[in-house]
Amino acid sequence: MLDYKFIKDNLEAVKQNIVNRNMTADADLVVKLYDEHTALVTKLQDLQQKRNENAKAMKQKLDDAQRQELIAAGKQIKDEISKVEAEEKDTANKLEEAARQIPNMVHPDAPVGKLDTENLEVKKVGTPRKFDFEPKDHVELGESLDIIDFDRGTKVSGPKFYYLKNEAVFLEQALIMYALNTLRKHNFQMFITPDVAKEEVLKGIGFNPRGNESNVYSIEDEGTCLVATAEITLGGYHQNEILDKASLPRFYGGLSHCFRREAGAAGQFSKGLYRVHQFDKVEMFAYSTPEQSDEIHEKLRLIEEEIFEGLGLPFHVVDTCTGDLGAPAYRKWDLEAWMPGRNGGEYGEVTSTSNCTDYQARRLNIKYKDDDGKNKYVHTLNGTAIAVGRAMLAILENYQNADGSVTIPPVLVPYCGFDKILPKNK
Asked: Which of 6, 116, 175, 379 could be cross-linked to 293 through a Cys-Cys bond (beta carbons 3.0 to 4.6 Å apart)?
């Protein structure tokens, strides 16, 4: 959430930012409510001062007429305070609700655009493989290798659920351990986080817990949701806390199940493991001072690159355009791996890392005490170490062989205990 005064003082820039992000929000309403709320707070303070003066006068030596006059005045002031307090509370709630719709400002170097096709490629690593046979997509491979069962996942749980079987079970765990050990090497503090979070935490991170556009599963009558990412639980970890500046930056890694409704997501680009309702993910999360966050954002991106270079997968990095950022992100890098089975061979997103500046911290009330003795909001950053489904998808499609087998990336073999998955005779 942006600072109210910042919105007022930079109204035209905030409105242009909303347009650039292709979002709908009413910055003018925020300024109007902010002015109304400021006036009500001033009025309330004046009334409270009058009440104090009246109470002080009541302690003086008075005749009955004077005392009755002060009692009547005190009752009138009390009634007016009660009325203004109700107005102030109502306006404050409306102001917060309107301000929560305003997206974060955008890094000046982020490309302006509406669609992911307008993202800017900034780096390319590896060369897409040229096959001397007709490659299969991961759905075909999952069936022929007997390692993924989408049909029974649909039968038991519904569309976009699946079973991992046989070698895929160990491949998933290998990817998780590979990511966890990479983060341990970079001195991250590791967590396995809850799969449930309160709605107030989701709102603070920037997720919408309710409504048709929500991407999360709400738990009825509980005021909680299944988490869509450990960003939610790691971001909520220090809600309403003041952190020691000397402890910053803090680097947290979280393993969690992730649950997403993916409402409206369909088509060939969402097939198979690419877009599902449940998957496992190792997430990176950082708390920092404002001066540290740009450098940390680069650090998180380089860790993502290290992980996928280690897997031997071709990928490129894109600077995400304004319309594809999401409300909390100030800047976001996407790492997209080459996927031979995606529309005949295309890059598809496997990780992203975002600098959210103080946008989430304001909503979650997470601060640090600066050298000047003042409490200031931290900056928060997040990044995907491994989203297992998409990483597995890319491995299966890139490491497939003409005989239908799939070779395991060497870095994963010690975790898997095997170096190849062979087709099954079912």
From this structure: 379
